[in-house]
Design brief:
With about 260 residues, the chain is mainly beta. The protein folds into two domains: about 130 residues, no CATH class; about 90 residues, no CATH class. The protein is built from three helices and 18 strands. The strands form four sheets. Strands 1, 15, 16, 17 and 18 form a five-stranded antiparallel β-sheet that branches. Strands 2-3-4-5-6 form a five-stranded antiparallel β-sheet, with no helix packed on it. Strand 2 and strand 3 form a beta hairpin. The longest helix is centred in the first third of the chain and has 7 residues. It is globular.
C-alpha cells in the first residue's frame, strides 16, 4: 500500500469524534492553526429561514461565536467583460479574465443553452472547458489567484433529459493553472474552492467520501455528504465563505453536523 504523508492540523471537535489515521501518516501542526469545530444536530437543517437544532447549546449561541469572522467581506473580483458578467484576477503583471459563453442547441425537448467557460490572459485565450447546460445554478463558480497560481471552479450541469428542467446533481471540477485537480488527483469531483488566510481550501469526493484539502494537504475529517451547488431558497444551506473561514452542513453515517473551519485569531 502506498503511504500518504500528510500534515494534520491542530483541530477542535466540540463533539467527541474518532478519526482513524493510517500509521504511515506523519503528523505535523500547521501554523497558524486551522481549527475545525463540528456540532452534531438533531436532524437535517432547513432553509428559509435557515434553521438547525444542535444536540447541545443553541443555533444562536453557536453562530455568535464566529459571527464577526463570517461578517467580514469576501474580496469581490466580479466585473463586466464585453458587457457580460466575469471574474478578473492578476497573476504577476498579467490580467486573467474568466467568463461564460453560450450556444443554443435544438433538442427534441426544445431549445437548450450550452455553456463554455473561458479564461483569457491579456485578452488571449488560455483555457476553455465545456460546463454543460444552463440552469439557475452558475456554472462558473469563480476565479482566484494565490502565489503564482490561478484557480477556476466549474459546476458541470446536465439537465434531466426527460423534464429538460430539473438539473441532475452538478459535478464540481477545480482547475489550477489549467490542470484539473480531479484528473491529476483521481477525484470524483472537487468543489467549494476558496482562500482561507490566503491559502487554498476545497472539498473533494473520492471513493464515495468527501474530504478536505487545505494548503495542499489532506486534513480530517471526512463526510458522506456536504450541501453545495443548491439554488434558490436552498442556497442558504450551501457553504458560507469568509476570508478566514468557511461554515457548512455535512452528513456522516446518517448524522447531520454544522461545521465551522477557519484560522481564528
Amino acid at each position: 500500500m502506498k503511504c500518504i504523508h500528510e500534515r494534520v492540523v491542530a483541530f477542535v471537535f466540540l463533539a467527541v469524534t474518532t478519526i482513524f489515521l493510517n500509521s504511515c501518516v506523519s503528523q505535523h501542526t500547521l501554523s497558524p492553526n486551522l481549527t475545525i469545530e463540528e456540532y452534531p444536530l438533531k436532524g437535517a437543517p432547513t432553509a428559509d429561514p435557515l434553521t438547525f437544532i444542535p444536540e447541545e447549546s443553541s443555533q444562536n449561541e453557536i453562530l455568535a461565536k464566529h459571527q464577526q469572522e463570517r461578517d467580514l467581506p469576501v474580496p469581490n473580483n466580479s466585473m463586466l467583460f464585453d458587457g457580460q458578467p466575469a471574474y478578473s484576477v492578476k497573476v504577476g503583471n498579467e490580467e486573467l479574465v474568466a467568463f461564460e459563453s453560450f450556444t443554443n442547441t435544438v433538442t427534441d425537448q426544445g431549445m437548450l443553452q450550452k455553456i463554455t467557460v473561458q479564461v483569457l490572459k491579456d485578452r488571449q485565450p488560455i483555457f476553455s472547458d465545456d460546463a454543460g447546460d444552463a440552469s439557475p445554478i452558475n456554472n462558473l463558480r469563480g476565479l482566484w489567484a494565490y502565489s503564482d497560481h490561478w484557480v477556476i471552479e466549474i459546476a458541470h450541469i446536465t439537465l434531466n433529459p426527460i423534464s429538460n428542467e430539473s438539473p441532475l446533481e452538478p459535478v464540481g471540477e477545480i482547475f489550477q493553472d489549467g490542470v484539473s485537480l480531479k484528473d491529476s488527483n483521481g477525484y470524483d469531483q472537487a468543489f467549494g474552492f476558496q482562500l482561507i488566510k490566503g491559502k487554498p481550501f476545497y472539498f473533494f469526493q473520492q471513493n464515495d467520501k468527501i474530504r478536505i484539502s487545505y494548503d495542499g494537504e489532506q486534513i480530517p475529517p471526512e463526510y458522506d455528504q456536504i450541501n453545495h451547488y443548491q439554488c434558490c431558497s436552498d442556497a442558504e444551506l450551501n457553504p458560507r465563505v469568509a476570508p478566514n473561514m468557511v461554515s457548512f452542513f455535512a452528513q456522516r453515517q446518517g448524522k447531520w453536523y454544522y461545521v465551522e473551519i477557519g484560522v481564528f485569531e
